[in-house]
């Protein structure tokens, strides 16, 4: 008997590690567990070795095709030097449309389904042009999705700046959002990137469904609100498929000899890992306070040390993973810090094998910017966090992790607004590494890890959710065929 033809999924990732990683992992999951073929189109940031490595890692074993689109020419688009990350990503994705169309036309056979990430919603029309179902992958959490898709409504209903409000923003059926927690394009409604954000939010529910990098037990109530017609179901306008946690696998040789040897020598759960994602940087003053805080805590640490913010956060995002001048970075540390912490600290300039570090048994805490990939990597490795949000949706994530999910502690002030002092950092580190608080967080993490593991195997909620998405997709293909 002839084998049934496999569905061929085309996935499109916007630039940046935070998008590339979960899109590639979704592609792999579709192929490995759900009988799809997959091609991932990526729009990489230029010359980022970290991104090149992610793409390279898909080659063995080769589960999917990865095609790099040529960097779009955005020279004709008037973008001031102050244009934010969201603005620049939106423009890059828009200008990549002709290249994406060409690449699809050059494929041997027409694909069967299109999946774009949230910056790619302007590509959904290509699904219509090809007559195939189309989905939006939001590689983040359900509370973010709720705020995101509700933003066009808030935009109509709320007057003035969100951040000037004294009351919270109400989202039907969900935990209200504090004004200081809104995602980055929201604090300045006059900025052109806010308009791009609202446009993307409005386009997201126009696909055949939304995929989300969480699992059911992690955010049951918010997911229920997203599906309830009386709450956000009206706005979501279709199924929300939970597909997570989708995270990068650990590479056996990823740590490298020196780091592995150092980690192997440390006691179990004794090392605090300090890293701010692919683009996060601190001010010179904050960097000094952090160094003192770590030293005063007397705990072991690995610190991914970046040049302090001489550039804007937005520029740092676009330089992510490129590496930097190691010695120059060290000169920002307090005098004598390196010598005094020689036996307890390990400094990595610019970039770290993060998943491998978090999965090492010696690691017992993660001072993190709360990017969603980092958060998931921490949860599945049972590593409690100090939430140190900087930009994007990280403030929202930090509140979710501390007040709802219960896997993190955080400073009293927002680190993106005020300097967190050394004594507070010392206390936070100790609370996670040696105090009772750390035990409570670890107990919660053990539960979550188990539920995450269950979710992704056959019969688990995320596995079944992707089965359902495939079924719905096949039905949609038949409907579209009939309609033509
Ligand atoms: N990452 C890494 N090494 C680093 C910094 C980041 O491997 O030094 C990886 C990290 O493991 C995660 C991704 O890059 O998979 C960052 O995604 P996240 O959503 O946490 O934050 P973003 O970088 O998008 O702010």
Compact description:
With 484 residues, the protein is of the alpha/beta class. It is 44% helix and 12% strand. The protein has 2 domains: 8-248 and 457-483, Glycogen Phosphorylase B (Rossmann fold, 3-Layer(aba) Sandwich); 257-451, Glycogen Phosphorylase B (Rossmann fold, 3-Layer(aba) Sandwich), CATH 3.40.50.2000.
Question: How would you describe the overall organization of this protein?
Answer:
The chain has 484 residues and is an alpha/beta fold. The protein has 2 domains: 8-248 and 457-483, Rossmann fold (3-Layer(aba) Sandwich); 257-451, Rossmann fold (3-Layer(aba) Sandwich), CATH 3.40.50. The chain has helices at 17-34, 49-56, 85-95, 97-105, 124-130, 142-157, 192-203, 220-227, 233-236, 257-265, 284-297, 313-318, 326-330, 337-340, 354-358, 372-380, 394-405, 422-433, 436-456, 461-483, and strands spanning 8-13, 37-42, 65-68, 113-117, 134-138, 210-212, 240-242, 271-275, 300-305, 345-349, 363-368, 385-387, 408-409. A 7-stranded parallel beta sheet has the order 3-2-1-4-5-6-7, with helices on both faces. The protein has a 6-stranded parallel beta sheet with strand order 10-9-8-11-12-13, sandwiched between helices. Strand 11 (363-368), helix 16 (372-380) and strand 12 form a beta-alpha-beta unit. The longest helix has 23 residues, at 461-483. It binds uridine-5'-diphosphate. The site of uridine-5'-diphosphate has 19 residues, from helix 1, helix 15 and helix 16.
């Amino acid at each position: 008997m002839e084998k049934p033809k496999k569905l061929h999924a085309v996935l499109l990732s916007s630039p940046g590690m935070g998008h590339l990683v979960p899109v590639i992992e979704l592609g792999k999951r579709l192929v490995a567990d759900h009988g799809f073929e997959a091609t991932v189109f990526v729009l990489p940031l230029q010359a980022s070795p970290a991104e090149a490595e992610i793409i390279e890692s898909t080659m063995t074993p080769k589960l999917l095709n990865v095609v790099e689109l040529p960097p779009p020419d955005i020279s004709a688009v008037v973008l001031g030097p102050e244009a934010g990350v969201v603005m620049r990503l939106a423009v890059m994705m828009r200008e990549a449309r002709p290249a994406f169309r060409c690449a699809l036309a050059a494929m041997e056979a027409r694909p069967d389904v299109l999946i774009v990430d949230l910056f790619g919603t302007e590509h959904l029309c290509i699904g219509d042009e090809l007559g195939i179902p189309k989905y939006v992958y939001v590689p983040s959490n359900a509370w973010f999705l709720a705020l995101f898709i509700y933003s066009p409504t808030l935009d109509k209903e709320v007057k003035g700046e969100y951040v000037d409000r004294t009351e919270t923003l109400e989202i039907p059926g969900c935990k209200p959002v504090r004004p200081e927690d809104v995602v980055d394009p929201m604090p300045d409604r006059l900025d052109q990137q806010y308009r791009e954000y609202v446009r993307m939010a409005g386009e997201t529910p126009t696909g055949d469904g939304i995929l989300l990098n969480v699992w059911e037990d992690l955010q049951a109530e918010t997911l229920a609100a997203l599906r309830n017609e009386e709450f956000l179901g009206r706005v979501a306008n279709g199924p929300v498929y939970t597909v997570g946690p989708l995270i990068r696998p650990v590479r056996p040789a990823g740590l490298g000899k020196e780091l592995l040897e150092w980690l192997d020598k440390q006691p179990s759960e004794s090392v605090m890992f300090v890293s701010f994602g692919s683009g996060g940087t601190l001010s010179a003053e904050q960097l000094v306070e952090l160094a003192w805080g770590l030293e005063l805590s007397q705990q072991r640490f690995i610190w991914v040390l970046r040049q302090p913010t001489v550039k804007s956060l937005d520029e740092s995002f676009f330089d992510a993973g490129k590496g930097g001048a190691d010695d120059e970075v060290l000169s920002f540390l307090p005098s004598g810090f390196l010598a005094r912490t020689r036996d307890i600290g390990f400094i990595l300039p610019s970039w770290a094998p993060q998943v491998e570090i978090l999965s090492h048994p010696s690691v017992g805490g993660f001072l993190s910017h709360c990017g969603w990939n980092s958060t998931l990597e921490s949860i599945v490795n049972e590593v409690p966090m100090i939430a140190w949000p900087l930009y994007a949706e990280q403030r929202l994530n930090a509140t979710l992790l501390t007040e709802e999910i219960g896997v993190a502690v955080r400073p009293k002030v927002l680190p993106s607004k005020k300097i967190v002092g050394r004594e507070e950092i010392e206390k936070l580190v100790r609370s996670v590494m040696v105090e009772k608080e750390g035990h409570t967080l670890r107990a919660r993490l053990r539960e979550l890890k188990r539920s995450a593991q269950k979710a992704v195997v056959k019969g688990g909620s995320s596995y079944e959710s992707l089965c359902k998405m495939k079924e719905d997709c096949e039905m949609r293909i038949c409907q579209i065929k009939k309609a033509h």
